[in-house]
Write a structure and sequence with these properties.
mainly alpha
Length: 74
C-alpha cells in the first residue's frame, strides 16, 4: 500500500505523472492478484480517453486481479 501512496504522489504532479504510471504498472507486474493498481491505472487511462488501454486493463483485472477461476464447461 505504501507503493500505491507514492504512485498517488507522483500522479498528482503533472511533471511526474509518467513516473506514477510506471509505479502502477510495476505494481501490476509484481502483484497481479491485487486490484488497486489496476483500478487506479484504469481510471487514469479512462480520463485520457485511451479506450484500448482501458479494455486491456479491465481484461487483465478480471483474469488476474479478482481471484476468479475459469473452468471450461463441456
Amino acid at each position: 500500500m505504501g507503493y500505491m501512496a507514492w504512485a498517488e504522489i507522483y500522479i498528482s504532479s503533472s511533471s511526474k505523472r509518467g513516473l506514477g504510471i510506471q509505479v502502477l504498472e510495476d505494481l501490476i507486474k509484481d502483484n497481479s492478484d491485487r486490484p488497486q493498481a489496476y483500478l487506479r491505472l484504469w481510471n487514469l487511462h479512462h480520463l485520457n480517453g485511451n479506450i484500448a488501454k482501458v479494455n486491456e486493463l479491465a481484461e487483465k483485472l478480471f483474469l488476474y486481479g479478482t481471484g476468479y477461476s475459469s473452468y471450461e464447461i463441456k
